Amino acid sequence: MKQVQGSERPTGLYELVIRKFVRNRVAVAGLICLALIALAVLFADIVTPYDPIERNTPERNLGPSLAHPFGTDKLGRDIMSRVLYGGRVSLQVGFLSIALTTLVSVPLGLIGGFVGGLVDDFIMRVMDLILAFPGLILAIWLVSLLGSNMTNVIFAIAFFSLPTYARLIRGITLSIREMEYVMAARSMGANSPRIMFFHVLPGVLGPLIVLTTLGVSGAIVTGASLSFLGLGVSPPTPEWGAMLADGRNYMRTQWWIAVFPGITITLVVLILNIIGDALRDALDPNVRA
């Protein structure tokens, strides 16, 4: 906590972080854009009048127009409607998979770093075993084994993301557990679970928030990649990666079928990366407010 000159009250940590973040106009603009995209996706049935699944053969392969801003596909389905409804699947995959990863990795990293010894060795060797496989290949294998649906895609992404989060939390825990305030809590009789979750965990949250923000963008791309390969949600449910796969053979004639879903993925991932970078700078104590 920093004392401000004069009679002003002290500035808290969270207030400093918010102040630094708000000063980054690009990040604030990105956050607003992300909120607008999320609202458009959430209220897609209000934003667009077209059904994303219903076929309309007379209007197939129409280019962008006032009636269909993103054009229509080979079955006459409105691309804008499919992009918005597909965002529900893609964003759920991104956010829920990283939420599941965080839920599992935080206890593992805290226990491994704080307890140490054989417990730490066992957890880290399991994480090393998962890291031995390329992430996308492991996800493809898991989805092929379990079946192609959104739940299994979320589980597969969460599983191969687990080592990155667990190792980060363990490393931070190893440094925090030797700090004076942790040793003071231990000397006052606090048990290990209380120390981990009330004294160590707050020190982990900053880097964890940054990693999860950047991780969501990676999870969205991975989910789209699995759908592109035919391992995501089943047709005709719209999903960004599946829409890219549908339009890849029509790039020279009906380019809009693949371009608009691709632009949407790029835009969302770019915004999330900008927000993650801004959060990293805001949480860095070496950056002045």
Question: Can you tell me about this structure?
Answer:
There is one protein chain. The chain has 289 residues and is an all-alpha fold. Helix content is 71%, strand content 0%. The protein has eleven helices and no strands. It has helices at 13-23, 25-42, 44-47, 79-115, 117-131, 135-146, 150-176, 180-187, 192-228, 240-247, 256-283. Helix 4 (79-115) packs antiparallel against helix 5, helix 5 packs across helix 7 (150-176) and helix 8 crosses helix 9 (192-228). The longest helix has 37 residues, at 79-115.
Key words describing this protein structure:
single chain, 289 residues
Quick structural overview:
The chain is an all-alpha fold and 289 residues long.
Distance between the termini: 12 Å
Strand residue percentage:
under 5%
**Rg value:** 23 Å
Helix content: over 70%
**Main beta-sheet strand count, sense and barrel state:** none
This entry's quaternary arrangement is single chain
Q: Tally of extended strands?
A: 0
Q: Output the structural class.
A: mainly alpha
Shape: elongated
* Low-confidence region ranges: 1-10
Mean pLDDT: 87
